[in-house]
Structure formats: C-alpha cells, structure tokens
Amino acid sequence: MTTTEKIKEIKSRLGEDLLILAHHYQKDEIVALADFVGDSLKLAQYAEKNKRAKYIVFCGVHFMAETADMLTEDDQLVFLPAQSAGCPMADMADIAQAERAWEILTKEFDESIIPITYINSRADIKAFCGKHGGSSVTSGNAPKVMKWGFEQGKRILFLPDMHLGRNTAKEMGVPLENMASYDRIKGTVDYVCPKEDVKLILWNGYCHVHHAIKPEMVENARQLHPNAKIVVHPECPYEVTSISDGYGSTEYLINVVKNAPSGSEFVIGTEGNLVKRVARENPDKKVYILDNKSYCINMNKTTLENLLETLEEIEDGDFSRQITVSKSVTENALVALKNMLSL
Ligand code: 13P
Ligand code: SF4
C-alpha cells in the first residue's frame, strides 16, 4: 500500500473526528489529502468554526497550528506533522523585544499606540497585542484591521512584517514620510516627519521568500510577457507592489486568475507551490512565476511520510506532535484574534 493510501485509510477510519487543514503553500500531494485548504485568514476562520473534529492536523507552519489551538475548544487537539516547520518572519519578533519596544515607543510617543500583529507571529506576540488593546491581522483583511486600529488610537505599531504594514497603510492614504521604522535589534526608532505626524511604526521584520522579490524582476517580466498582469503578495516590498498591477493575499492571487477570461496572462510573485498549482488549475490561461527562487523551506517540510506518522501516532494515542499554547497566553492572544475575526 502506498503512503497516500495508508493516509486515506486512516482518514476513513477516523471520519469526522479528524480534520486535515492545509495552507495553499503546501505541496500538491498534501493539498490533495486535506479536508480544507486556505490562506491564513480562511484557515483561522475554519478552525474557529469547526466544533466537531477531535484531532486537527495542521499542514502548515508552527504559528498556524498555535492559532488553531487557541481558536478551537479545549478538547480539540491540534497537531503539526513537521515539528521543525517554523516561520522565520514570526521569529523576527520575540516577546522580550516587544516589551522593550513598548517601553521605548510609549516614552517616545506619549499618545496611544495600538499594536497590530500579523497572524504570522508567535502566540505570545498576539497576547502582547491583545493585552495592549490591539489586534491580529492577515494579508486577507489588512485594510479593514488597520482602519479599525486608527479608530482606536493615534498611531499603530505594526509587527513583524514591515512590508504588509507599509503596503496597507500607503493604500489607505498614509504617506510614506509619516511611517517610522523600529529596529528590533538596536531598539531604535527612526522617522523623518515631526513626531506628532507619525501614524505608523513599522517593526523591521519580513518574509525572506517575498522580501527577495525585487522591482527589476517586475521590469524584466514586463519585457518578457508584455500582455501579462503582474500580481504579487503584500509581503513583497513597496517598491514591488507599487509597480505591479495588483497585490493581495494568497486567496486574492488565486481568484484573480480564476476569474479572468480565458487566454489571460499572469505573472505571480509568491511561493512557488501555489503559483505552479494556479498554473495547472487554469490551463486556458498562461501563468508564470515572477521569481523562480520563491520557495518556503518551512512550508515544504510537511511530507506524506510525516503526515502518515502523525496520523498513526494519533490512532496509537501518542500525542507528541500536539501543539499547545498555555492558558494565560491564549487568554490575551484571543483578544487580538477575536478583534480581528469580529471585523
Ligand atoms: P496568506 O495566507 O495570508 O496569504 O499569507 C501567506 C504566508 O506567507 C503564510 O505564511
Ligand atoms: Fe513564513 Fe514566508 Fe514561509 Fe509564510 S512564506 S511561512 S511568511 S517564511
């Protein structure tokens, strides 16, 4: 029996007790076995809604499994097949750095700051944001959450992804000169406008996969594919999003191609597994990848083998791949997550 067949057999034995979730960046063979596939926003919403499954196997990275654990009931257990699948961007903000930043920034800017964290962050960073009246955010709802943030306070601390923060605020009409940068290592804040005009403080974190996409790549793609629309993920630098034809979350990128007329051409700047799948699922259109080095090592750590091992362990009552977040962290992190999900 193949590994896929063994997985299918366990799936049918466990029935609705088991829910396999997968992010769009997962490999095809994993996506094919998932009960639900989505971007970070859809996956969080789906995990929150599902009250039935006892075992939720999250094919994604660590912060996603943590988020699912916090959004599900206490008796629903969440598992991560590839235990070392972290997110380097999430690791660019730790709680000690966030506490130090808060001290520095609240001293520097005496009026209220609302902390907003990308869902790609550790659970204790979400808790930090919840504790200070902030929210989490995903690439699928960033303008909505940022608007909410500006209604709550005078300025926003956006972490860890500077690019998502900058792109979203710029789209909402905040000039680049009214955005400050916070250096998490040096503990310094830089801005060019008068202090009272600073609207957004950007933490200096990024996703290495999207940060590596350069404006020259967009220019080259325009020469190579003059009839194509170039669409990118908002984790790309502003220099890239500002010269592209559109940008948005993973779901946006999928739908923009799906809803385009037959014969359309697209160049997509995001993780390769997704771009290749979009190309295959739209055979009547031409789809190219903007940077063929766009590859998330961590998303690719989930394999059929470690998925099968996880399921076999669950059947044996071995929960060693379970991801749990402590009650105290969950309590504050849920404030940030619920603020986001209620919008
Ligand atoms: P979205 O799922 O929000 O598009 O984010 C992409 C990503 O980098 C997930 O790690
Ligand atoms: Fe993290 Fe980027 Fe990989 Fe997403 S694609 S998990 S943000 S490193």
Overview of this protein structure:
It is built from 15 helices and 14 strands. It is α/β, with parallel strands linked by helices and 343 residues long. It folds into 3 domains: 3-86 and 299-324, NadA-like (Rossmann fold, 3-Layer(aba) Sandwich), CATH 3.40.50.10800; 90-206, Rossmann fold, CATH 3.40.50; 213-289, NadA-like (Rossmann fold), CATH 3.40.50. The strands form 3 sheets. It has a 6-stranded mixed beta sheet, with helices on both faces. It has a 4-stranded parallel beta sheet with strand order 2-1-3-4, sandwiched between helices. It has a 4-stranded parallel beta sheet with strand order 12-11-13-14, with helices on both faces. β11, α11 and β12 (246-247) form a beta-alpha-beta unit. It is globular and about 65 Å long. The termini are far apart. The mean pLDDT is 97. 1,3-dihydroxyacetonephosphate is lined by residues 39-40, 87, 120, 138-140, 207, 235, 249-250.
Concise synopsis of the structure shown:
By secondary structure, the protein is an alpha/beta fold.
pLDDT < 50 runs, ≥5 residues: none
Helix-strand category: alpha/beta
Bound molecules: 1,3-dihydroxyacetonephosphate, iron/sulfur cluster
Care to count the β-strands? 14
* Percentage beta strand: 15-25%
Count, helices: 15
Helicity level: 40-55%
**Biggest sheet record:** 6 strands, mixed
- How are the strands ordered across the major sheet? 6-5-7-10-8-9
Radius of gyration: 20 Å
Number of separate domains: 3
According to CATH, what is the topology of the largest domain? Rossmann fold
What is the highest CATH level, the class of the largest domain? Answer: Alpha Beta
Would you list the SSEs in sequence order as H and E? HEHEHEHEHEHEHEHEEEHHEHEHEHEHH
Average pLDDT taken over every residue: 97
Overall 3D geometry?
A: globular
Distance linking N and C termini: 47 Å
Q: From the coordinates shown, what is the CATH architecture of the largest domain? A: 3-Layer(aba) Sandwich
